[in-house]
Amino acid sequence: MPFNGADAISVDKLRLHFSLQPLRHAIVSAPLKSRVREAAVLMALEELNGELQLILTTRPTHLKAHPGQVSFPGGKVEPSDLSPTHTAFREAEEEIGLRSENLELLGQFPTHRTFTGFEITPVLALVKDPFEIKIDPGEVAECFRVPLHFFMQDKHRHIRQFQRQGHSYHVVFIPWEGRLIWGATAAMIDLLCRHLKDGGAI
């Protein structure tokens, strides 16, 4: 059940899609390094006014890793974490006040490696009920939502090719209301859109 950019994607349609199409895509990543830091992020979809919205954050400029960039709630896997899903859910509660019991897990995409040495597992989930955003200013500068149908339109996802360390990579850029979503976050959004549009085929 693929969707096109003009489709209205309801929660029920999304559940059905992911019950039929496991999140099994590969994602273009940086070369494997001998030492990586494992991390997980939460791709949370929330239905507001009958429309699915993707929850995003902006990182504070004082952070060492990816300062000022648009990202998903998430962070490094801690020794006490039971799984990447545990990490993503825990970080979302710490960063924006989205509690794990208010999330319905849909699945995980394959890990995405970054040039900065992270191996990130994207975890996809639905927000069950409305919640009050409570930002941790040490981790998040702002939290905002973007309609999923905006990302689903190919014209909003710009792909450029870059050379690095002798390899060619596609980098996704998505402008949104004065912000620029790019890097791993944009790659994961592009992956989600392709998964929804083509029914799981790359």
TrEMBL record:
Q: Which UniProt keywords apply?
A: Hydrolase, Magnesium, Manganese, Metal-binding
Q: Which InterPro entries match?
A: CoAse, NUDIX_hydrolase-like_dom_sf, NUDIX_hydrolase_dom
Q: Does the keyword Magnesium apply?
A: yes
Q: Which GO terms describe its molecular function?
A: coenzyme A diphosphatase activity; metal ion binding
Keyword hit for Ribosomal protein: no
Organism of derivation: Shewanella amazonensis (strain ATCC BAA-1098 / SB2B)
Cofactor names from the entry are:
Mg(2+); Mn(2+)
List the Gene3D superfamilies.
Nucleoside Triphosphate Pyrophosphohydrolase (3.90.79.10)
Q: What is the name attached to this protein's record? A: MutT/nudix family protein
**Domain (Nudix hydrolase): residue spans on this chain:** 35-168
Check the record and name the PROSITE patterns matching this protein: NUDIX
